[in-house]
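Annual report, structural modelling task.

Input specification for the zinc ion complex:
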Amino acid sequence: MPIPKAELHLHIEGTLEPELAFELAARNGVELPYADTEELRKAYLFDDLQSFLDLYYGLMAVLRTEADFEDLADAYLARAAAQGVRHAEIFFDPQAHIARGVPIATVIEGLARALDRSEERHGVSTRLIMCFLRDQSAESAMETLHAARPHLDRIIGVGLDSAEVGHPPAKFKEVYEAAAALGLRLVAHAGEEGPPAYITEALDVLRVERVDHGLRCMEDPELVERLVRERVPLTLCPLSNVRLRAIDVLEEHPLARMMDAGLMCTVNSDDPAYFGGYVDDTFHAVREALGIDQERLRTLARNSFEAAFLDRDAADEALRARYLAEVEAYSFD
Ligand SMILES: [Zn+2]
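The model returned the following structure:
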């Protein structure tokens, strides 16, 4: 059994495996430009960001109904459970679906159907985080936030994803202020391909509690010192960094150096159907490539629960305490 862990950086659209893509395409009468799952599986071996994004957004065409989103989330949760995930905070991108004519209610209610059953069915507690596409306008993000208002009981927070460079966090200041006023928790992708200054801006202007990726903080020693001092969790995705060429090979990933520096690191799978592994696969990969030893794997697992949004009430705190006890009791042998 893999070590118990929380997954905090996971895009549900990035869990669409070729088999399910074909199943949903058939269900909805959507024609895919691939002969079969094997040919589609080969397309998943893209070699640059643009071919990844083309494939990623192209395949979303198969997601039409609540049942489709439910099946997508349920398939992820089953895989996550097998990877030792006990708690998942799941990102979704409503703008990508609204643009295709799929209402936000369909997306949220469909995902919620799977999430509502998850503890009972998979032993995985869940939260939902709505992400804004940063390459779209701040007005569009604000409209999306308003569209989500009838469903806020389903959503714990908001995030910011997609192409980072040229779209600094400050662009979304008002949206984040509005989200905070609605009681939503705040996270944002920053410092993946964008500069360290974007991380500072996400903290100071957007007031995020966690930074997604945050990899490039290592270029700024003062920023590292601050992140350590304020114990800001970073949701790292090492396999994603290699596939999207943020770094050349996993052996060069700064995870070990980041842990040495005292940063609060977590390890996650990002878009696992596309990036070659789910979260425990990632734990294994960093152990092999970076010599992350067992006690450091335990630290990563402990950090994941400490950084989780499990602090709303006594039930949350009890759940977190139980998960942390499972981490401490875990034996690697
Ligand atoms: Zn991401």
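The pocket of zinc ion is lined by residues 9, 11, 161, 189, 212, 270 (CB under 6 Å).
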